Amino acid sequence: MGVITRGFTGRGRRDLNLPPGQYLTEDFPVLSAGPTPRLDLERWEFVLASETGQRYAWTWSELRALPSERVTVDIHCVTRWSKLGTRWEGVSLDTLLADVDTQARFALIRSYGGYTTNLPLADLRDGKAWVAHRYDGRDLAPEHGGPARLLVPHLYFWKSAKWVRGIELRHEDSPGFWENAGYHNYGDPWREQRYTDD
């Protein structure tokens, strides 16, 4: 079901502090479950919906006008590659959640193209997650999730949903696309939480 495209060149060094079962890559492999959406920035919208139905929405220009942060983080894919010291720029989820009155404990992330993934809300707060729109000093390329993707680097990279379009806050957890297909519900790379029984 997944697609591996050029740039995926195989095994790298194992002498670094990587999560168990991971290998280092210098490339940035592109893996997707379907076609890459081509999005019109004039129509792009990011919507955060609280558990009560309250909506908070940003157009592309409104999102880009929010304070941005530059972060350098390691990323780890469930397919076993890790890329160290990746440089991103985006809006912290702390900024987007600042005015949201919520008692929710979970979030369901929705992407253009229909993809979903789930996270505890705590994993989106306290400087742990961003809506990233730049990578390595350039606008985020569509094949890597541009114009914007979720960035949650402390979890396996499938939790960093590409082409993000919104977040629903919920009282109850609701598994997303890969979680319903047998991937672990949480996805901590340091605990090798790849699949349901891990």
Automatic annotation (TrEMBL):
Family annotation (InterPro entries): OxRdtase_Mopterin-bd_dom (IPR000572), OxRdtase_Mopterin-bd_sf (IPR036374)
Where in the numbering of this chain does the Oxidoreductase molybdopterin-binding domain appear?
Answer: 34-178
Q: Which residues cross the membrane?
A: none
Q: Name one Pfam family in it.
A: Oxidored_molyb
Tell me the superkingdom of the source: Bacteria
What is this protein called in UniProt? Sulfite oxidase-like oxidoreductase
The record lists the organism as: Rugosimonospora acidiphila
